[in-house]
Each structure stands twice: as C-alpha cells, then as structure tokens.
Amino acid sequence: MSLTSYLAAPPRIVIMLLIRSGVNLASVTSLNCLDRSTFLSCLWPSIAYIHSMLAAAGILYAFQHSEPAGKAVLFCLLLGSIFSWSVIWSKWTQLNAVVRSTRAFLKSFRSATEPLDPYLSGRPPGESPQAIIYHAGAKELCFHLTGSSAVDSTLAARLSTARSISETGMNSVRTAMERAVGEESLKLESNLILLATAVSGAPFLGLLGTVWGVMDAFSGIAMAGQASLAAMAPGVSGALITTVVGLLVAIPAMFGYNFLTTSIRSQNIQMENFAAECAAVFEHRFTPRS
To answer: Does residue 48 share a domain with residue 121?
Structure first.
C-alpha cells in the first residue's frame, strides 16, 4: 500500500528523520516504495513527541483521573466533534460545487440567443441551484406555451409557432421558480442544525461533566476524611478536562457555522435575484406587448 497519503503533511521531526534515512522527499517514487517498518520507525518519534506535549499540558493526566461520568461526557463530545467536522467539510464541498456549477450555467444562459436554448439542449441542471430554478421556470413556460413540457425533437418547432403567454401563465412561471428557490434554500441549509447544536450544547455538556466531576471529587475527599491539595487536585483536573474539550468542540463549530450561514445567505440572495432576472427575460420574450 502506498504511504504517500500518510506523508501529505508530516511533522518536522518526521521529515528530518526521513531525510536522515536516505529518503528523497521530492521523489514520489521513493515515498511509494517506503516500506512500512521504515515509515513507522520514523513516525514513532513524532508520536512520542506529541504524547510528551499532551502530558506536559496535563491533558493525559486529567483524562486518566477523570471519573467514568466524565469519560462518558468526553465520548459524547468526541462524537459531536466528528459530526461537526463532517458537516463543515460536506457543506464546504457542496458550496464549492454550487459556485462552480452556477458560474458555468450563468455563462451558458446569458450567452444564449434565446431564453429557452439551455432548456432545449436537454442538459441536466447539475448541482447549480440557478440551473434548477431556470429549469423549473422553463418547464412551466413550455407547458403554457405548447401544452407539454417534455423536451423532444418537436419542441423547438412548436415553440416557434406558439402564441404569447398570458399574465396568468406568467404568474405560474414565477410561482414555479419561487418554489424551486425555496427547495434549493432548504437543501443548502440542511444539517446546519448539527453545527448549531454543537455550538450551543458542547460547552454546557462539558460544564455538566466538570460539575459532576467536582462533586465526585469533594465527595471522595469527604469520605476519605482529609482535605489536602494533593487529594483534591486529581479529581478537579479530571473534572475540568470536560469543559476544555467542550470548548474545543464548540469553537470550531461556531466559526464553521458562521461561515456557512453567511455563504448560504449569499447564495439565497443570488438565487432570488436570478429568479427575478429569469422571470423578466421570459416576460420580455413571451408576453404580448401592448
């Protein structure tokens, strides 16, 4: 199995050890041919270094002295972090695909000689919300002009001989595009509730673990009959780690939620503007002039 993916961004200490082992990092072939034992021998000092950093920060000590309830809270926070990062990554990928598809569609739509040329081409709308909105409006428009919205070899000829659309039919076209705008907005905003829950719930869940751990620590001190810093410190540190982890889950989720909501709000405005633009183009072309 190729180890290139594991070395996409290796720590500095791994790079130094690989170079010292005679591995040419600029050569993809040498990385592909790197055997597992050599890789693990170079990676182990980095793992040990990270372990020592966590130990120096007191994270491992606090986790080791955490109560079962605190570890259950940490497990829930870990699941919340996984869900949060998966939502952030999936929505970011979706928005990037939407931007690329929309850019290509708008270029095709605005360069067409006739408003219905993109619809008559039979190309699927893809991931662009504007393309889906356009297809919804064009389908409704073709139905009112020709009595059928199916794209076939005779549709272009039937459109050329069709009469102008009435104001009632044009209102139906606008309604179809507005409905498509709403549906696409719901698609873009789906799963954001998970990020909002992580932002608001993770700190309180971490605080719950801390309060529970402190309560257990004081209960243990009371039962032991001795109140000293050495007896209190392990339990308190094990309780505080849940608050730390709760904040570590909530802070990235907050930044991701703010970024995604701002980007989606921008996309919603662009969809509404395009629906108005498309309706105006259809109206200028297919409604009778007084």
So the answer is: no
Q: Which residue has the tokens 């009371």?
A: 222
If asked whether residues 259 and 174 sit together in one domain, one would say: yes
Q: What is the pLDDT, as a whole number, of residue 196?
A: 92
Per-residue pLDDT tens digits for 247-284: 999 999 999 999 999 999 999 999 999 999 999 988 88
Q: Cα separations (Å) of 153 from 33, 121, 145, 146, 179? A: 56, 10, 16, 13, 28
pTM: 0.70
Report the chain's terminal Cα–Cα distance, integer Å. 72
Q: Which long-range contacts (CB under 8 A, 24 or more apart) does 215-219 make?
A: 216/67, 216/69
Domain that holds residue 33: 5-56
Local structure of residue 163 (DSSP, 8 states): P
Token readout for 231 is: 């007896």
pLDDT of residue 127: 86
How many whole angstroms separate alpha carbon 206 and alpha carbon 266? 34
Interatomic CA distance for residues 97 and 266, integer angstroms? 15
The two tokens of residue 270 are 């662009």
